[in-house]
Amino acid sequence: MSTAHPDVTPPDFAAPESGARLLETAWRFHRGDIPMPQLRGHRVSYEATKAGGAIGAAAAVYDDGDWPLVDLPHDWAAASVPDPAENIAQGYRARGIAWYRRGFRLEESLRGRYLELQFGAIATKATVWFNGIEMAHSFSGYSAITLDLTANAYFGEALNSLAVRVDAEQAEGWWYEGAGPYRHVWLVDRAPVHIVTDGVHADPRQNADGAWHVPVEVTLYSIEERAAQVRVVAQLLDEHDAVVAQGAVLVEVPVLERTCANLTLENFTPQLWSPDSPRLYKVRTCVERDGACIDERVTPCGFRTLRFDPARGLLLNGGEVKLKGVCVHEGHAGVGVAVPDALIWWRVLRLKAMGCNALRCAHNAPSPALLDACDRLGLMVMDENRLFNVSPDYIAQLEWLVRRDRNHPSVILWSVFNEEPMEGTANGYEMVRRAAAAVKALDDSRPVTAAMSGGLFAPVNVSQAVDVVGFNYHQGDYDAFHRAHPDWPITSSEDTSAFMVRGEWFTDEKAHIKSSDDTEHALWGNSHRGAWQEIATRPFVAGSFVWTGFDYYGEPTPYTWPTKSSLFGSMDLCGFPKAAFYIHQAQWLDRPVLKILPHWNWSVGRRIKVLVATRLDRVVLTLNGAVVADGPVDPYQMFEAEVDFVPGQLEAAGYAQGRLVATDRVETIGAPVRLRLSADRTALRGDGADAVPCRIEALDAKGRVVPSADAMVALVVAGAQLIGVGNGDPNAGFSGKESQVPLFNGLGQAIIQTERGAKGQATLMARASGLAPARLDFAVEPASVPTVAPGPLRLMIQGWRQSPIVASKPERPARLADNDMNSWDNVRAGTPPPFSGASGYQTLVAQVQVPASVTRTGGLLVLQTVNGAGTLWVNGEARAEKSYVEAGGLHTAIAPGQTRLDIALILRVLPDQRTGLPGLVFLESEAP
Ligand code: GAL
């Protein structure tokens, strides 16, 4: 039975807007904290408080040359080997604190443009400095950090610097959250008059007469010095990019202030969006000035009606649709939470293959790539807020979530919390009222829910403040609650919490193994079959959100060390199906499903409880041709039979109304003789982002997959990179960054990612002792995404001070008293000096901590351009002379062993000359 969705190729990885470039390659990374230097002294204290004056590793200029280079998205915790001393909730992975730094240049042509840096998210708390200015503190590891760099940017040859301190000692979840900037980082440049980030709200509405229109609100901003007149044009594009509706409005954009343009798209008849037929439109919004489009944004748009009915559950486009959902955390084997977009796409396809029509982002704002995949492939999303807190900084996070995600047709519910101790109290009620109001102010088209795990019957509780009451577990309360509130829509927001280890059929508590026969579940949960039965048999419960779609690192309930990941998934950490996957297929897919579980490799005589996942009405089971069971199928509990194992073939025939509809077979497999590699697709894009999970199996002499294979498989990749390995074993002890992986119950996974700029062929090769090797070739097509190149490896010297002009030539450089902040000017090297109008002599001074590489091997102090004649002094010694007045460079060698330089330049000042440092000053290591 094929479970593959036709759409195996993810959409092109593209910039979110034109003018956006990835800022992800070659970041300097330091694991561990770098405490801020202690301030001692008048001048350093004064200067450290000034714009641009950040100190230590946050400073604009800092010696990070010895830090290793990493590419983002990055999750450093994913590289650590689990350690029992670390937090069980985080999968026993060390997290801690780290620093990232990146230099980059901005072309002169960008001067005057609006520049914005966008971090998709950083786990968990981050502080960001740009050019020595502390620009952002994050409040959640799941929210974007968006920084307007415009006022603080340098152009041309000057280097801009970013420093990020990431504190992943802090946690926001009881599951594995990763550590570091694990989502995309974009540098965006826009016209001075432009649409702000998340600034288009296209809000499809159906009129009473059935016709549709789309009110579009566009938020604009201008950094110009005078109000600007622009025309905002919005077009509705269908799947083929044909314009089906258009609107325009003139608007005046004030100075340094946001303003909204509102228009409406109408007179069109859309195809509706649904999980079965996810017809997706786009709204293209242009800001036009003098007839030219100066800024453009494309936002997803879909047409569907949505109503949660207290008696009938969800009505989508007027018809009852039961939510067949799963809860999902973001991590994946081998890559932690830095999941490539293409792998997110693959995971959504796996959920579709299981029969899902819904997904809950547990318990946080998802990656934008996830919502994009849900829009295109058709999953209805419960989009969930992370921290339940209605103080301004946290309401801002909730508002950010709604603004970012409200155009996605896939999003059908906003969840303001998951399981909060205050849910059954007046405080909780008051908080939810406020959170819901914040949501509604930005989007009143979707209901608000909260995932409650109790308090449902308290006199004052959160259910009174939401549109749809979310039940986490508590399935025994559905009826009583419905009786008490027959007019309140309810849905399960979380259910099941059943345990399975993929490929295992017998629980072994000592080995931390749970059977996959769907009998094991948490006290508060239910089996996969039982939980669905409670929901499917109650039309007033809108649907199910199974805990969970996939296993995830952390929360290894009911075990502790050495179990590192959850057992709750319908699929394992790699997305390999467990028995639950087939059970859900049988429950949820419209086509007939018949799947025999488990495999048929056991010891002779062992009594096996065979489970046939099906909703056909009768199953006949034969073993080596003899009927061993024949009977009706319970539509929820399905079909079970006890069979004493003998090797051979176990076959199931499924009947509906007396007609044979489907068959399935398992058979006893021989010893492994060779490896096999496979992937859903073998054409990849060489954009450095495309990635594909490859399946590793061992086959017997007849080419059949060996379900018990456990070979250690060594992997080699050429023409691409191996970014993670896994096997779905919750008890495995490796990090996932190794280049080998043991098969677990017959399966292993290697995730490969293309290199930026790659083209031609990539190959994955697998070897294991005693087995014939395997290889898998990929065709890599050239593809690129614009990126920001890293800055050159130089230590810029800034923070120059310039003495007053004196009449006679000083013998030595003038000295600036430590307590004198006022008599010398601040000078930035690389900016044109003014005419002084006077004549005499002037001293310019700067100090610098010598980079370790220069201390080791020596280096070169370079003054690119000096205007005026003068002498360069270093550490009290005259080192170089410039005898001519015109612009010219100066340099001097720095011997090994130096750790600090006191640099001074005594310049002759002439009234009609610009004297000073129009060029940059930097230290270069002599090593290449
Ligand atoms: C719920 C919770 C989930 C997960 C689950 C395990 O209470 O919302 O995050 O912890 O239990 O059963």
Give Rg in angstroms: 32 Å
Top-tier CATH class of the largest domain: Alpha Beta
Could you estimate the helical fraction of the residues in percent?
Answer: 10-25%
CATH topology of the largest domain, what is it called? Answer: TIM Barrel
In what order do the strands lie side by side in the largest sheet?
Answer: 22-23-24-25-26-27-28-29
Domain Glycoside hydrolase family 2 catalytic: 314-387, 393-556
Domain DUF4982: 605-662
Pfam families: DUF4982, Glyco_hydro2_C5, Glyco_hydro_2, Glyco_hydro_2_C
Family: Belongs to the glycosyl hydrolase 2 family.
Characterization of this structure:
By secondary structure, the chain is mainly β. The protein has six domains: 20-190, Jelly Rolls, CATH 2.60.120.260; 194-301, Sandwich (Immunoglobulin-like), CATH 2.60.40; 321-591, TIM Barrel (Alpha-Beta Barrel); 607-665, Sandwich (Immunoglobulin-like); 674-782, Sandwich (Immunoglobulin-like), CATH 2.60.40; 795-925, Galactose-binding domain-like (Jelly Rolls), CATH 2.60.120. 10% of the residues lie in helices and 38% in strands. It contains nine helices and 55 strands. An eight-stranded parallel β-barrel has the order 22-23-24-25-26-27-28-29, surrounded by four helices. Strands 3-2-4-9-6-7 form a six-stranded antiparallel sheet, with no helix packed on it. Strand 44 and strand 45 form a beta hairpin. The chain is globular and about 110 Å long. The mean pLDDT is 97. The site of beta-D-galactopyranose has 11 residues, from loops.
